[in-house]
């Protein structure tokens, strides 16, 4: 039995993106995270996902673009504008997982489940490499102009933004589900 792995899985926890900082994954570690992310169950090998990586100045550029988009439909306070603009400034690396379903006899629902597995593999791979992460959607995932800025095609959607870095503070655990209330033994 791999006790280290079991321990990691049993104690894993997300860290809020604003509490993530340097260091983040280097190029080789990033490639490992992406490789592990794509190593998921995938019915009929459709690979219905792709990745967009944000690092360095690209994070600031996207934050500013998204803020401009948000201001078209919302009144924001100075504080909110600052928060929008710096949305991607905290974690050194952000991976956007794009759900890119394929026209196929494999139902879209199954393709989406596979994409969800990709997402959680990013969290787990990041943690195994010694980093922390958070899976975030927020308004930007669902806004058509934000999707366009990232180059999404009309049939694609954003499964999440994965902020990856090192925790500046470790949160207390949240309450976890009572498995006995969630599990039924069919007989
Ligand atoms: C699809 C999806 C979208 C999420 N979007 C957000 C979000 O926009 N903002 C946020 O604070 N947490 C979001 N979360 C929740 C966090 O990623 C995380 O699950 C939560 O903070 C609890 O973390 P833990 O159970 O991994 O410790 C999202 C989770 C999922 C699965």
Structural commentary:
The protein has 187 residues and is α+β, with helices and mostly antiparallel strands. The protein has a domain at 12-55 and 88-171: NADH Oxidase. The protein has helices spanning 3-11, 27-37, 57-73, 78-85, 108-128, 144-149, 179-182; strands at residues 20-21, 49-55, 93-99, 132-136, 157-167. Strands 1, 2, 3, 4 and 5 form a five-stranded antiparallel sheet that branches. α2 (27-37) runs antiparallel to α5 (108-128). The longest helix is centred in the middle third of the chain and has 21 residues, at 108-128. The protein is globular, with a radius of gyration of 18 Å. The chain starts with a helix and ends in a 5-residue tail after the last helix. The mean pLDDT is 97. Bound molecules: flavin mononucleotide. Flavin mononucleotide is lined by residues 13-14, 134-138, 160, 174.
């Amino acid at each position: 039995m791999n006790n280290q792995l079991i321990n990691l899985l049993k104690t894993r926890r997300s860290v809020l993106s604003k509490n993530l900082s340097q260091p983040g994954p280097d190029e080789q570690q990033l490639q490992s995270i992406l490789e592990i992310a794509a190593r998921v169950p995938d019915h009929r090998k459709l690979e219905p996902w792709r990745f967009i990586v944000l690092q360095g100045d690209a994070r600031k550029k996207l934050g500013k673009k998204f803020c401009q988009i948000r201001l078209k439909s919302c009144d924001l306070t100075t504080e909110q504008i600052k928060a929008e603009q710096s949305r991607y400034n905290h974690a050194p690396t952000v991976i956007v997982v794009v759900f890119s379903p394929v026209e196929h006899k494999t139902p879209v629902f199954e393709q989406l489940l596979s994409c969800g597995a990709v997402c959680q593999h990013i969290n787990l791979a990041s943690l195994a490499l010694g980093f922390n992460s958070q899976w975030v959607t927020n308004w930007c995932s669902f806004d058509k102009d934000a999707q366009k800025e990232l180059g999404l095609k009309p049939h694609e959607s954003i499964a999440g933004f994965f902020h990856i870095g090192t925790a500046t503070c470790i949160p207390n655990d949240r309450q976890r589900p009572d498995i006995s209330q969630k599990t039924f033994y069919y007989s």
